[in-house]
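ok trying this again, last paste got cut off
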Amino acid sequence: MKAILTSLVLLVLAMSLPASAADSNSFSKIYTTKGDFGSVRDSLVTAVEGRGLKINHINHISEMLDRTGKDLGATEQIYLNAEQIEFCSAVLSRKMMAADPGNIMLCPYSIAVYNLPGHPDTIYVAYRKPPTAKAQASKAIFNEVEKLLNDIIQEGISLAM
């Protein structure tokens, strides 16, 4: 009963979030929120780990671009901060690969969080959309994966508030 009540509270909070889908295209869905980069990132990590999922790696994208840009002669700062959180769900990954062994390329799952120079308090949170599949088994599991990613992002943003 307590778990159901907690889920309902999180759902109500998620529905009242000041986050919005900033952009959607064929390969990603991007949300925006106002806040502090570190707080949003840490809340996303908490939302992932709170589901019992293991974070494989956090990629420090902005640091890599800043470091390598100097060697390439690039002076423009693309991101103020940018990180990707890579993680896996044993349950969903197994279902996804059982549906089609070629789906291995979609694992691990990844959520990006970033902000841009000049707008440090606008935080973008994005995930890579699963591809369009013809096989019904892959379509079904891709919907589950996308729901998981959306739920993690909505919870992470709400925790950062």
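PB: full thing came through this time. The CA atoms of residues 6 and 104 lie 33 Å apart.
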